[in-house]
Backbone:
């Protein structure tokens, strides 16, 4: 019933599973991409106080 | 027949109706326009979190239909459990990226402090909901996690009531009480976003002199 | 006559509704997000699945580590196990943990009274048709409390000295009925009847595993398996999952404190870490109102990236 433990990376006091590390790194990458990837330009309505019906 | 002015003023229904319709400015519950500065991919992570939450709840509903131990014996049940696990990972990933974005935007400006606060509270409530989920897996994980967690919860004096070793209690917290709590806080958070609108850019702040 | 007031500058955030707008389909955005999140969840579930390590049954514990089960049962009778000396909510044996002089654990009260010796004796008493066991139980009941403790403690010490903790290789000594009781207990565990006796024998509908879990936690086998899976408290275990599955990365800060002093060597670590995390959580909630912290986004202008289209249009 004993599973083999997953792969772990040890660095000083830190010990993190490879999977968790990939998840965290992935999140940081996605965050940076979200900041830098251009967002589609749209026609901007210049007048204010739109009537939303 | 409409009420007389006096009846109108005393009407609880009118009071509630005014309260509810006043929560969000007219036309802003589901507007089809957004301020032009809402033009970055960072803005999709709020709705991504909501969408992931829908998948979490949906997969949870299917698990509930099969019962607490269904996923151990049914391969479809195990698949649904896997969907539940991965949608939770996606939920937390999207929520945290959303939090990072909102921090760097200082999105609490312009009287939006409560929007930020409800966001953090929903994060904490979600962690609690996830925690009880781990407790009701009825496998080795549940045994170890409950055995460890009991020490933390007992140490602050609430273990006599909130008994993590009791799956009967933890299951009901996980499928009713905590989802309701997360749901209520999420609704408050989204209403606040629609109420105040998306926070304007940081460098647009104006300085005014108070006399 | 004019009065001079001190002037103060205050930042004012413009009203978001005063800005030019662009078309944005919120409902379509939500539907697309839902489709993507559903698709991702299905694919990840299909490719990676989810773990389901079988629970440790009393029978599997008895088979895998009988010496540990016998030693645990002996400890329950001697009153030396973790549960026997725990304090609230199970008993009065200890003051429990405290932080800043606040005895939170004790103040919680004994809400789940558990007699650790009964974790062993109650299931044994329920067995019928075993004359030797009945005899051993009679002998045990005839002893005074002090004699019970002495016999059980002596046997526990002897087990610890025996090669591999093997009860069959324990040296001669005055152990009273303890060896007979713990041998019967091992047999009961092996038969598969122990969990039921502990959780549902009186009520039929057992849904509360407290007694069975406390017994299991009092042994070393459960923790040995967890540590082998890298789930131990000083292994950042709170963040981890068995195998290579993703765990709970969001628990990183909670488990971090347990890895470093003073918490890693503190007897009050649980209460202390909880208090610290409560403080930090309240701090996170109150970020909008904390001077300095709330200014960080201004000082490190990540926002120039986010709103670059807008700033460009303004110029």
Residues:
């Amino acid at each position: 019933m004993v599973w083999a433990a997953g792969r772990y990376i040890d660095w000083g006091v830190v010990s993190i599973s490879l999977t968790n590390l990939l998840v965290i790194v992935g999140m940081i990458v996605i965050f940076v991409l979200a900041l830098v990837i251009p967002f589609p330009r749209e026609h901007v309505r210049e007048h204010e106080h739109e009537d939303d019906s | 027949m409409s009420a007389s002015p006096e009846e109108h003023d005393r009407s609880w229904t009118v009071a509630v109706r005014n309260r509810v319709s006043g929560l969000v400015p007219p036309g802003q519950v589901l507007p089809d326009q957004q301020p032009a500065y809402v033009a970055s991919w960072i803005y999709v992570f709020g709705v991504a979190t909501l969408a992931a939450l829908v998948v979490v709840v949906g997969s949870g509903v299917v698990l509930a239909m099969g019962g607490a131990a269904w996923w151990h014996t049914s391969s479809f049940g195990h698949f649904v459990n896997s969907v539940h696990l991965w949608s939770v990972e996606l939920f937390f990933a999207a929520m945290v990226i959303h939090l990072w974005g909102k921090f760097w935007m200082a999105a609490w400006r312009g009287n939006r402090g409560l929007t930020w606060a409800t966001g953090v509270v929903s994060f904490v409530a979600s962690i609690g909901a996830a925690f009880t989920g781990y407790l009701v897996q009825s496998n080795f994980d549940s045994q170890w996690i409950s055995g460890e967690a009991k020490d933390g919860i007992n140490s602050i004096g609430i273990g006599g009531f909130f008994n993590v070793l009791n799956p009967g209690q933890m299951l009901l917290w996980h499928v009713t009480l905590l989802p309701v709590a997360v749901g209520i806080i999420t609704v408050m958070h989204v209403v606040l976003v629609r109420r105040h609108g998306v926070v304007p850019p940081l460098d647009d702040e104006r300085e005014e002199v108070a006399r | 006559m004019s009065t001079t007031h001190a002037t103060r500058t205050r930042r004012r955030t413009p009203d978001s509704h005063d800005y030019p707008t662009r078309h944005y389909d919120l409902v379509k955005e939500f539907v697309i997000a839902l489709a993507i999140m559903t698709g991702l969840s299905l694919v990840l579930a299909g490719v990676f699945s989810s773990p389901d390590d079988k629970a440790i049954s009393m029978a599997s514990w008895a088979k895998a580590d009988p010496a540990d089960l016998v030693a645990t049962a002996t400890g329950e009778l001697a009153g030396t196990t973790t549960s026997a000396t725990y304090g609230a909510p199970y008993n009065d044996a200890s003051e429990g943990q405290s932080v800043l002089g606040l005895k939170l654990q004790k103040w919680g009260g004994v809400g789940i009274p558990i007699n650790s010796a009964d974790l062993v004796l109650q299931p044994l008493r329920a067995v019928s048709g075993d004359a030797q066991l009945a005899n051993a139980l009679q002998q045990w009941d005839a002893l005074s409390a002090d004699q019970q403790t002495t016999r059980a403690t002596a046997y526990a010490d002897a087990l610890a000295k025996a090669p591999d903790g093997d009860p069959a290789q324990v040296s001669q000594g005055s152990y009273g009925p303890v060896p007979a009781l713990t041998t019967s207990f091992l047999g009961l565990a092996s038969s598969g009847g122990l969990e039921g006796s502990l959780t549902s024998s009186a009520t039929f509908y057992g849904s509360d595993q407290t007694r069975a879990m406390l017994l299991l936690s009092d042994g070393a086998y459960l923790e040995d398996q967890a540590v082998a899976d890298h789930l131990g408290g000083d292994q950042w275990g709170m963040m981890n999952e068995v195998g290579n599955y993703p765990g709970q990365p969001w628990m990183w800060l909670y488990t971090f404190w347990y890895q470093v002093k003073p918490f890693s060597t503190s007897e009050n670590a649980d209460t202390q870490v909880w208090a610290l995390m409560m403080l930090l959580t309240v701090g996170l909630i109150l970020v909008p109102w904390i001077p300095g912290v709330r200014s960080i986004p201004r000082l490190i202008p990540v926002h120039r990236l986010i709103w670059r289209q807008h700033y460009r249009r303004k110029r």
About this structure: The longest strand of chain C covers residues 8-12. Chain C touches chain A through 37 residues (CB under 8 Å).
